[in-house]
Amino acid sequence: MRRRLRAWLARKPSGYRFTVGRILAIYSGVMVTLLLAALDQTIVATALPRIVGDLGGLSSYSWVFTAYMLATTVTVPLYGKLGDVYGRRPLFFVAIGLFLLGSALCGAAWGMPELIVFRAIQGFGAGGLFPLSLAVVGSIVPPRDRGRYQGLIGGVFAAASIAGPAVGGFLVDNASWRWVFYVNLPVGGLALLVIYLTMPKRAPRREHSIDSAGAAALAAGTTGLLLGLVWGGRQYAWSSGHVVGALAAAAFALALFAWLERRVRETILPFGLLRNRTVWASIVCVALVGMAMFGTIAFVPLFVQGVIGTSATSSGVVLTPFMLGAVTTSFVSGQLVSRIGRYRPNTIVGPIVLGIGMLLLARMGPSTTNGVAARNMVVAGIGLGAMMQMFVLSVQNSVPVRQMGSATALTQFARSIGATLGVTLMGVIVNQGLPRAARGHEQLSHRLPLRLRVALANALHPAFLASAVVCGVVLVVSILWIREVPLRRGFEDVAVGDEASPQPGTRAAAR
Description:
By secondary structure, the protein is mainly α. The chain is built from 19 helices and no strands.
């Protein structure tokens, strides 16, 4: 038995660059890193209503997510480029270190402004967790077999889906919400150890230039846009100088970013890849799916605790079916795609089912039971799981192998910007729908008066309907512009997307 196991681990499958044992060792580091990121998403979403109740500031609810996502969005392309230059192993250490520092500070936060700042620090680290991990996966497993290995990653998200909401709710109800951040510390320590033992220790350094001016312009533009959206109609009127100034500054910064990217030697984002129709359509879909996904994760616990009137533990139990449905369906879809070599059916069925789930969520009210809410979340999770990895796979399969890292970073940037805008826009919609009496109820409790529960439900309904509309847009884009590209069986195969050569200013992407 041992001989067979050793022989299996030492086998190097056709079309692969590493042995099975080496691939599994690298995957172990990737999975622990993804566990760290997945746990944070589910735990914080469950605990946030209680955090708001303790620190105050219901109107700042969405900013706890927005600050995190904004920092993540800005740093994703930097991690992608620096990983190609210096190797992904040292970047993993930087990302996880910043994430753990932010977690420790969040646990010690004494007010909502401080918590939002510390969540931004956490986001600066989180910006590297997903793109670095998925880039590693894309570089060690050919596209045709990648679905089989999704089960390993799916197991991580399944564990986080079960443990995250349950642990988060238990800590909030029985200890302190601060422990939802402190729990990241031992998991992060394990991730650092596993990466130290499994990842390649050195990578050849390549000639490079970092587009710092472009990164600063992108950060300024995104920040101004989000500030304008959050302030508009809430703190200030849409026609006020604050809102108009923020949006004008965002437009100027983003225009400056576009101007800079046309002139630098190496762009911060590989825009040349967008010449491929399947790539740009998949990037758009990744962003839109991120909007629907993170908006749901952020506001369903608020609905369960504020409208249905149950505890943080119960809201975690309701969020669990959503994540389990997504993870299980993603695993099954990955196995099916690896067998038949077709991913486009998933990109069509997924938005339809997710849209139905969003419509079901929009029909919930104060009389809705936890069981009905859980059922609706399962439907939404199945829709998300059917397509959550398919768009990334279609991008990776449509570009040359030499551009794999840049393409993966671009998908994660789109996902981050979509998630940031999704949570922000849903927060704007909810704040606009709240009556004045509910807006003044800053100390959130899961035993709100019936009239405020009804008001909160009515404010949340348009947000879920907006997510359903987003799913409709994903469906249209998938049908019209995403084509089926045969999945490659090895790394030396030529992708149909090879005609998407980088622009002259994207030399690093081609290396």
